[in-house]
Write a structure and sequence with these properties.
The chain is mainly beta. The protein folds into six domains: 78 residues, Immunoglobulin-like; 82 residues, Coagulation Factor XIII, Chain A, domain 1, CATH 2.70.50.70; 81 residues, Distorted Sandwich (Coagulation Factor XIII, Chain A, domain 1), CATH 2.70.50; 80 residues, Immunoglobulin-like (Sandwich); 140 residues, Jelly Rolls; 136 residues, Jelly Rolls (Sandwich), CATH 2.60.120.260. 4% of the residues lie in helices and 48% in strands. Strands 37, 38, 40, 41, 43, 46 and 48 form a seven-stranded antiparallel sheet that branches. Strands 49, 51, 52, 54, 57 and 59 form a six-stranded antiparallel sheet that branches. A five-stranded antiparallel sheet has the order 39-42-47-44-45, with no helix packed on it. α1 runs antiparallel to α2. The relative contact order is 0.06.
Length: 665
Amino acid sequence: MKKILNYKIHLIAFICILGGFLFLSSCEEDETSSEVILLSFGPSGVHHGDEITFFGQNMDKVSSIVFQPAVEISKSAFSSVTSDRINVTVPDAAEAGKIILKTPKGEIESITILNFEVPVEIESITEEVKPGATLTITGDKLNWIEQITFPSDLILTKEDFESQSLTELVVTVPMEAQTGFLLFATGGTKPLTFGSEEQLIVTVPTVTALTPASIRHTAELTISGTNLDLITAVEFGGGTEVSKANFASHTQTEIKLAVPASTIKGKLTLKQLSPVEIQTADDLVIVLPIGTTATPSPAIPGTSDLTISGTDLDLVAELGLPTFGPVLASAFKSQSATQIVLAVPVGTKSGGITYKTIHGYSGNLGVTVRVPAPGPPPLPITLYDETIAAGGGNWSWNTVISDVASTEQFYSGEVSWKYETTSGGGLSAGGITAIDVTGQQVFTFALYGGPGTNGLQVAAILNDNWANYNAVTLEEGKWTEYQIPLTAYPTTNLNQIVRFALKVEGVNSSVIYADRVGFGAAGPPPLDYYLFDDALKNDWQQWDGWGVTSKDFANEEEVFKGTKSIKAVYNDQYGAIQIGRGTAFDMTGYTTLTFRVYASAAQQLIVQLNNDSDNYLNIPQGWSEVSLPVATMNGNKSAVSEFRIKNNNANLPTTLYFDEIGLKN
């Protein structure tokens, strides 16, 4: 520009010399310009209300000055004006930007930007606001706020503001916002960042009711509350989430939606765009099938019909029987909300029954099917026998081995629980569906002591309540059945048994086997005189008998008490087993002849003393006690040298088990 200007000056001078003084005079008039020229302004960083000076040429011809965004100061409001400067007071509404000088010949815009040092003041902020609603901020110099940061680094810039003036700023609260302090950023020569004095409370939804409080899978649930229109998803117990797109209806006060088929009992978690989640105060209870009884017990596979009583059994699509597998509802003999009747398939084993609902949800029904098995009869309430009770799991601690299905040793059925530790641990099952045992008398279990355990104490704990400490003495290398009266557990909640533990005391390393753990009546008192108790007693001997395929006086398959019983397989309607002794025995000093007998189905028996008249009996299915008053029995009771138990059943072969044969006063 300087080079071009020099060329112009030389050219003008040359023309003036050639053209004379007239032309020279004309050139001098052109050099004295009447145009307004803005050269500078200042000071830099001026405050609102302070005086600012604009320097230039012909400044007295300026009619007004316009500050950004459109704040115009007329000439009459100038503090002072001369040809080379103008002084004005910076208006409060002025913002950073280029200055415009208005003149008779047009507008002149500054090349540089006028900026300010601005003390922004906040007077009030809306105390509580809902996401998506507007937030109003009042104060002074608010037009200089360029950015607002909400908690979690949610940033709004000037382009996002709804409105902005000197004294008021209105913004829409982001849907993702949450309660917290606001952070403001201003412009000016010295930009400021400062926070609000109080937290902005961001409204969150509330839940006032779940209707119904107990509900079946896939049924419609109503969630009532406030500000529920903010909810974007609902998470049910078990983790299944339903998004708002799948709500049946959605308003500010109510959400209707179907309960997912995988839902379990638990609190609901309501989600929104904000990271703040809302959890219901109460659990949503899922209505599921619950079994209360399963009869008969034991049930004979291939013969018996199993009747399961309970609630909401109409939800069952299939039942899972131990070992056999699923039985579809189409195969049930009958089904209602309170009862299911089905044939017990061949191959069924003892254990907990599972279910799958019509909605595809699977769980434990809470009842157990019992089938005849080797060993003593099933307990009225079982915590472990072949399998852990419904809902329970292996909670043993400090284990080397904890095998709930060991075939190495067993007292009942076909497996036992083998437990080994080298660090003072214990065998335990926990998480069992709560069982009420208040109607029972004893906590009973069988233990087999591994090497080096003879005489050691085993703590028997219920519900992790070590304050009710009870212990029994191990016998190495043999099974021993123990019974602990429930009165020995005075502070244990017997209404809700959920765990048991068996821990060898006094040593770090031990091996034990446990079986047939549960609750029942107290064992029968000992007889006053025994013919058989695990073996023949008091000089009684096994005689030949007749009409039997086999007889085993040391049977371990089905035992009522102890470890042995007598097994007889009859192949004749009137076959008999015989027990005899060389010297006749006088039983008239006793009141009752008694024994235990196990039958797979109800039938008839005959008891005979010597070769005298018969005593006819009817026995039920399962284990039962036979009691014959000595005084009214047929036969010579004062000189008994032979005792016979005869079959009286034409359905052959017939298998019976006998135990605890003797007399009592």
